[in-house]
Amino acid sequence: MNEKFFDLKKEKQDRIINASLKAFALGGYMHASTDDIVKMAGISKGLIFHYFDTKLGLYQFIYDYSTRVILLEMTTGVSKDVTDFFTLREQIERAVSLCMQQYPYIQLFLYGAAVEDVPEAASAILPSRESYERIMEGVLERSDITRFKPGANYELMGNVIDMTRKGLLERMFQEGVFQPEAYYEESIRYMEMMRELSYD
Q: Are 70 and 103 in contact (CB under 8 A)?
């Protein structure tokens, strides 16, 4: 984590972070342009390279920052006492949607980063990505699966939830109607439907 960056005013930090998240989320590492990032952030290109040296350094910082923000929100937003399969995922969704109020593209960026195919970018974030995924898996391992109907596959249901979340985000951004609260409410409607179909 580049600590010098945090000497900047918070408003400028967030402009740079949000511009970077948007560029990397929509274009991936290869197609994200530092020219576009500085234009969106309203800063000089020299400022980016002063703090991050390279585009790769910026990408790695943005990934580390994004995972830290979400995990921090989860420490207060996801109860350690909750074990219900769907309630646990709903609390995670709430935490993520709260993060998206400040950083709208944060989850879309993380979805893209998980399948980044530029070797240098994928390698740069690999330790952080593996750590983040282990933590998320550890939270989800608390899920109580005893309420599922006989024959219901809870692993497939988890995959369906993930694909639904990703699809909702992509659709809302493509249609230009993304609002974190509306996204959260719609994702919960889908999860409640899945709960009704899956539980005895």
A: no
